[in-house]
């Protein structure tokens, strides 16, 4: 029977995180092992690993998935014990120390890999269980797990991680939960960020696993700055095919209506989405935006306190300045202006996206430019306003 006064066993995850950090330090700096002082026996990272091995021995034995990790730790202890004792300056001593340090570094890399694989399995298993629960489970735990998953996949592609995600069918569960009204808005927003991260992780594998139409509708229905940021990220990743999906599902009018939202952040992110649609959208999508009165809304926003004209900053004078430092200073000034005036020159910025974008043919770009100019004349309050906006469109004012 356990003594209730005995200290509680350390948490497995915290021990593994400490092991992972020590093994990463050792693998990143293998020379430290060979260069350790003669009386120290080994480097600080090795000492930390060996101390943690003793502390975690009973913990590792409880989980069969950690048997390989336990074996690697035992190998590490053996390699450290077998390190050359001689610290001579001869070639033989030097090569022996280098060989020993290389072997220890390889084992440290294996330890780090095993620990990360265990953490990945635990995260995915807990996420799957939480997403299958009614109401999407505990909010705080799910948000933490979703944030961990997002950060993990954004570190870059790994075949083992992809295999784990595919076996778990996590992507489909995420999409189902995103459309589940019983899930809190906060959870669904984090689910959206996780979906966008997975598509960036490997677009070829994860796009097409679920119908994107439902994902688009769910994100737009949430009507938050976070959900629209996810949509913007998806447009950047999937490009024209996603814009086609947005247009065919009749969602473009809803995105344009966000330009009139009471929340400024929603309006700003909606503007970003519109600019991305302008860059990747094909003829049908751009026509839908213009027919929905986008140009008139953009003129009104440019006229507002948060609007303005980038042409007033003298951007076109930058072409006359040959020194790169001065040009960069001008661009920095433009960025600062846009931070406080997010709708400055928004008509011209949209026109530039169409002109430099991927979705339209050359003759379509020219036709839409003329259409935008005609709509600007109709929407402007006076000739002076129309002349300023038209000049920006013709000259291509863009940040």
Main attributes of the structure:
ARM-like, mainly alpha, 399 residues
What does this structure look like?
- With 399 residues, this protein is mainly α.
- The protein has helices at residues 12-28, 31-34, 44-61, 67-81, 91-132, 139-153, 159-168, 170-178, 185-201, 203-206, 212-222, 225-238, 240-248, 252-257, 264-280, 283-291, 294-303, 324-340, 346-356, 362-379, 383-395.
- α5 (91-132) crosses α8 (170-178), α11 (212-222) packs antiparallel against α12 (225-238) and α12 runs parallel beside α15.
- 72% of the residues lie in helices and 0% in strands.
Kindly report the average pLDDT value.
82
Question: In what range is the share of β-strand residues?
Answer: under 5%
Shape: elongated
**From the alpha-carbon coordinates, what is the Rg to the nearest angstrom?**
29 Å
Model regions low in confidence, pLDDT < 50 over at least 5 residues: 1-10, 34-41, 315-327
């Amino acid at each position: 029977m356990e003594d209730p006064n005995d200290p509680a066993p350390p948490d497995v995850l915290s021990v593994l995180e400490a092991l992972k950090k020590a093994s990463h330090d050792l693998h990143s700096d293998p020379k430290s092992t060979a260069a350790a002082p003669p009386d120290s026996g080994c480097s600080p990272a090795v000492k930390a690993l060996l101390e943690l091995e003793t502390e975690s021995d009973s913990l590792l034995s409880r989980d069969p998935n950690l048997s390989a990790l336990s074996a690697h730790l035992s190998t590490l202890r053996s390699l450290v014990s077998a390190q050359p004792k001689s610290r001579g300056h001869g070639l033989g001593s030097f090569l022996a120390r280098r060989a020993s340090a290389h072997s220890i570094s390889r084992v440290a890399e294996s330890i780090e890999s095993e620990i990360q694989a265990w953490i990945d399995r635990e995260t995915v298993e807990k996420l799957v269980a939480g997403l299958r629960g009614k109401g999407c489970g505990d909010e705080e735990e799910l948000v933490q797990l979703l944030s961990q998953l997002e950060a993990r996949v954004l570190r870059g592609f790994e075949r083992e991680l992809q295999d784990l995600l595919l076996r778990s069918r996590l992507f489909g569960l995420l999409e189902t939960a995103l459309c589940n009204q019983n899930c809190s808005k906060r959870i669904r927003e984090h689910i959206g960020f996780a979906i966008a991260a997975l598509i960036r992780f490997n677009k070829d594998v994860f796009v097409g696993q679920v119908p994107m139409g439902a994902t688009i509708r769910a994100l737009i229905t949430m009507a938050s700055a976070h959900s629209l940021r996810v949509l913007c990220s998806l447009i950047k990743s999937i490009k024209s095919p996603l814009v086609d999906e947005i247009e065919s599902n009749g969602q473009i009018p809803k995105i344009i209506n966000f330009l009139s939202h009471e929340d400024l952040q929603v309006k700003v992110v909606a503007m970003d989405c519109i600019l991305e649609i302008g860059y990747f959208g094909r003829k049908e999508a751009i026509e839908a935006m213009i027919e929905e009165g986008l140009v008139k809304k953009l003129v009104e926003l440019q006229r507002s306190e948060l609007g303005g004209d980038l042409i007033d900053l003298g951007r076109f004078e930058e072409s006359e300045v040959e020194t790169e430092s001065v040009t960069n200073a001008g661009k920095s000034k433009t960025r600062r202006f846009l931070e406080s005036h997010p709708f400055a020159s928004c008509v011209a910025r949209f026109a530039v996206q169409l002109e430099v974008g991927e979705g339209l043919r050359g003759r379509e770009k020219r036709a839409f430019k003329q259409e935008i100019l005609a709509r600007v004349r109709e929407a402007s309050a006076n000739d002076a306003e129309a002349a300023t906006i038209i000049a920006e469109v013709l000259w291509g004012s863009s940040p």
